[in-house]
Amino acid sequence: MTPTLKVFVARLVGLVVLGPDGESIGRVRDVIVSMYLPGQRPRALGLAVELAATRRRIFVPMSRMTNIDADAITLTTGRVNMRKLALRPNEALAVGQILESRVQTDDPDHPELTDADLSVVDLEIERTRALDWVISRVALRTMRKGPLRRRGETVVVTWNHVHGLTRLNLNRPGHGVELALTQFEGMRPADVAYALRELPEPRRNELARALDDERLADILQEMSTDEQTATLASLKPSRAADVLEAMDPDDVADLMGELPAAEAEALLAQMDPEESEPVRRLLRHSPDTAGGVMTPEPIIVSAGTTVSEALARVANPDVGSATATMVLVVRPPTSTPTGTFLGAVHTQALLREPPANLVAGILDDDVPRLSPDDPLEEVTRFFATYNLALAPVVDESAHLLGAVAVDDLLDAVLPRGWRDQEPEGTQ
After folding, report:
1. Is 354 exposed, middle or buried (0-12, 13-18, 19+ CB in 10 A)?
2. pTM of full prediction above 0.85
């Protein structure tokens, strides 16, 4: 197959990167471009490749590419440098920083665009005889109507007729926000959190403000406490409260426990009382106990609930995988703190029962349970002993207070700041 000599950079984003042995290394997330070469075309220096296992972004030189096809890029032989990507002075991310930039053109084929307000849509790069990759053409979109052009129409011009491309203010407010949000679509919250962590704080905060409440809440729950605090501080108090209301109460409680008391109370006061009350209850427990890491919102039903109703609760996409392994059964009320805790039904048992049957008929009334004052060391041994993904937390009066999920336990027992550490996995 003849190697591709020209390609638009947006076409590369998302392609699988294959090593010389055909094994997947990761996916292309951007192209690094050298921006300041007086009298020369800007060069495409390499690919920003996100490793499949660790989400670390590494630099792969353009010279390593041997072929580009419909869904993959193949690399030449040789060892891939797993060092974390770091931009040097005068380098920029083509998709993350250049696209959507405002420029001008003096292309003689498009005199009607002289002095027009244009936005960079894409960059075409081509391989030269010297085997360098350089920007050859630029796709531009008109930003406003003109006598001969409609707003939003796209034209492609040669690089030397574009002005402002190598003098871009890449950190100006609003630059590339829409495109960045489009890139985040379909990505897992943990992956978006990692991508945001790689950005300068002003840029990270700008993108956070552009995300909707639910999406930002999911992403914040994958960040370290310091990152959460900094991001929320960049929002207006009312917006910060809306985002906190969309987060899981146990995650909000963890965050509030790290803030100064006055600051935490100010945020809680901004929240709806129905949303802040579960958080306040959690804050009464020490953070190094079962009560301090539990969620007050596991799946809770009464004994008269049908199997089909319980399975519908399990199938809710907002329910975490650990929480979905077990349905907890109580006497009314079913909001924590509940009536008397009766037991639990494992999801596997629900799947084996006729839909119209009641959960009371398959109730495990001897399911292991935790006390809210159990220390984390004991909780860890508990999970290892009983091989559970979720454990109910019950007080001395047999009221269900919540449940500890194994993922929340891991968050609590891993070293502080573990989310900030560079992943150590390799391909």
Report:
1. exposed
2. no
